[in-house]
Amino acid sequence: MDATTCRKESYYRGKSALFAVTCLLLGALPHWFHGGPWPAMVVALLVGRHIFPTAGGKSPTGDPEISAPTAAPVEQPTVDLVVAAKNEAAVIEPLVQSLLSLRYGQDHLQLWIVDDGSVDGTAEILDGLQEHNSRLHVVHRPPGAGGWKSGALNAVLPQLQGEWVMVLDADAQVDPHLLEHLQPLLKDRSRALQLRKAVSNSNQNLLTQLQAIEMAFDGVIQKGRIAHQGSGELRGNGQFIPREALLSCGGFNEETVTDDLDLSVRLQLQGTPIDVVWNPPVGEEAVSSLGALWRQRQRWAEGGLQRFLDHGPALVSSHLPQPLKRDVLVFFLLQYVQPLVVMGDAVTAVAMRSFPLSWPLTAMTLLFTTTVLCRCPSTPNPAGHPVARIRGLTLLMALIYLFHWSLVIPFATLRMGLQLSHRTWDKTLHKGLATRV
Q1: Element spanning 81, H or E
Q2: What is the structure's pLDDT at 2?
Q3: Is 85 buried (19+), middle (13-18) or exposed (0-12) by CB count in 10 A?
């Protein structure tokens, strides 16, 4: 590990430790000063005043600006579709075949697959496919090349010429008419787009069913935040970024474990908003075991906190409009501060044999989550398996499942603050189950 990397790791370790200790102390202080639940009640009212409107309003299923595909498209924007693939032999050939079937002008769509040092035969599969398809461009990176997914995407970025950069994961599933549907939106390059993510193997087991609900839950919240002048976010798979905007903010950050969340912040800071498209969605394979889920969510949580440590001063500066700044702050408090505060409160309550005092925050979050879940529409995913209306037992299971974030966030933060080893990329394994259409 070089000196620069060591300094970076030390920076994240110190900032994470300070953040964790501060939040834990905030949870403990009301017990020490016998303040009662009133501080938590005031914060719950202030936060709830902002977040509950994002759970209301019109159904998120409609995207009125998207029209049906036409037989003779006019002025098609040019698109470079990029996939970073590392050890994806199980899914890469079906992916390439589905991308080659996209209905869009051949002169307006180029396909780029970056083989990121694969050792499982992915490179050989791609080379064989490239021989028979002139639109498919394969770029190979050597094993051990740095930068994780961001490094792979940056490796091909200088060669792209399209107006848009479309990024997919290797397990993605897309409708053949996707780009024709999105054509009206692609004419406006003043914003980035994120397709709603849907789980293609939702019928595999209970865990994948709950992840399908979680993806719909995330889409509803994002649409609500955007509707109230808040922040949309990229989700890695199914993102459309204007190439000039991507270049102007420096490409993909090779120091982060979540390239999408980091890029979301940098785009917002330079004045490029992010919109979320509900239909058509992009499908992806959900993890099917608790161990894989825990490892995946730890990486997501670490990357999410890392973006705030990196860009926190800019986010509270005058770079952002006031409504957007307020939205970012409130959801940071909800997603990262609250779980640690509640943990500090719970530990102190046990130690002092008293009743927890952060219950107003917990009650507010539970009510907000329930409201959003009840608004999630019943929507078929790309493999044709619908997400059921969330009521009764399904609602209870979804609430219990989403509670895992209350454990993931504190654990990830404390691990970042205590670990001595450098960060590694914990890749999600794609099994290529029979989920493709």
Answers
A1: strand 79-85
A2: 57
A3: buried
